[in-house]
Amino acid sequence: MPGPQSTPKEQSQLDQLEAAIRKMKVEAPATFESDEKLIIALDFGTTFSGIAYCFANQRDTKVAAIVDWPGAEGESAPTIPTLINYDRSDKKKFAWGASVDRLQDNIVGVKLLLDPSQERPLYLPTGNVKRTLRSLPKTPVEIAADFIGAVYRHALNEIAKVVPKDYFSICQKHFVLSVPAVWSDAAKNATLQASKIAGIFPVTLIKEPEAAALYTMHSLDFSLNIGDAFVVCDAGGGTVDLISYEVVGLNPNLQVKELVAWLDLFGLNQRFVEAVKNLVDEDQFADLRKTKGFLLAEKSFDREVKRSFRGDPDEEYFINFPMGSLDDDPDAGLEANCWRITGKDLKAIFAPLITDILRLIDHQVKSVKIKRPSSGVTGIFLVGGFGNSHYLKSCVERQHPGIQVLQPTDAWAAIVKGAALSKLPRQAAVVATSAPKHYGVSSWSLYDPETDKGFPTQICRNGSKRVEKMTWFINIGDDIMRDQKIKFSFYRCIDEKYEPSDLIFHDELYECADPDAPVHFTKGDNIHINCSFTTDLRSVPNTKFTKRIDKHGEPYYDVNYNLVVILDSALMKFSLEMDGVSMGSVEASFK
């Protein structure tokens, strides 16, 4: 996720954009929808969030970031803390982002609360997640909606300041929201629900590393050829999100497909907190942690030290704890509430996290090699807040001397700017995704005495013996083209004199993360419900059903239909087909 830092380049781009738009003279059509498009992207991060935007119809379109935020005290900051704090007497009132008092009991990690099954990073408070959910003033989706809505409304107000009022009013607003690559479909769906509650729709979801890859390829002079592969490592404030891509086309634009995806959790700033705790005694630390001086020290470490450090043990940095009242400890470098932190100290703080990131990147490189035995990885892109680190870059280069390691100058913004670029024509495109899990359904199949012995059976209406089995329509690692239709076949029997309610069916779509998905659904298997869906065929004429006679001479209908799944950038989309024609309806409820 991005970390807060502004650049002169950012302001220059904003000035150029404003100048270009002010030269335009556009009149709003009386009856036709304007073709002018404003793309607004939000990186809803675990620790920090940011907004970027661009106008789609501008020549040589530039992407700009919102840098002025409530509570930032005049400081230009392209991101804000993902924090929210409600008024105890009125839940409709809340402080958000930089306007939140960091010393209060704030709601943190609301993004992860959208999926309680997700592991929580070390820097977030530990405890019982169910108890945490019960203590919230609203549901996680409603809290996310409040935060997202506040950020977007402020962004719209800021964008309106730099373009003519008439032009801004006729622009179609296209919203894009980034989500982690390896995140549950339930969490992605909850994010869409939060956006809708906030009054922001339609919203397109995009995977964070995918957005980062698009921006990196857009901003860096990196020559790619068909067959090249590269790893995108998004090292943010609370997660390390990695995806590998392979180049599959160059014309009319760069086209890539996913190879391998992975997600892990960590917290670099938490390592700094632990280092300070070891520097002073427990009583002093307990008092220090309650002061604004400690927050300023954390800010200094986050924005300056961790990004500037290059790995030299003789480097020195000075971190102040204003009004800390700390006892001097010259041997440890602590004097007059100022800690002289050396490169050796920083290496100790960074060590376990660098080790983990190198392990994850190495896993990607080896996985790509397994998937493409004759080729390797061409480049490694480092993005996100910690992706700015010079030390991280040097460590990755030493670990993989034969692979080019690239780091955009504004790596913190790669996700949010790439998300905005994803809606522009003629940009690089991800044309295929790699299935992160197995997806399938449980259904009755003809009994096989060799493979199904010992499993429960039943006799169906035509007299045949059947057993319940898993049918996996998608398997881990499958290459799935963007907008490719994947059809899950379903079969039902209904009486000849059926009621309309008999044409409403309830099913589950299952997922499994094991390398080899099981054939039978047995207790202890790592099979989980991805979503429940309701199929409604009441609008389908019975001429689409096949009339049969059962073994007792009674007429009935065979009902055959397909659940059609499209794996969009970040979330599954469902529809129904019969004989290749869209019919009926389907409604999915994610678990």
From TrEMBL:
It comes from the Eukaryota. Pfam families: HSP70. InterPro entries: ATPase_NBD, Hsp_70_fam. GO terms for molecular function: ATP binding; ATP-dependent protein folding chaperone. Keywords: ATP-binding, Nucleotide-binding. This is Actin-like ATPase domain-containing protein. It comes from Podospora australis.
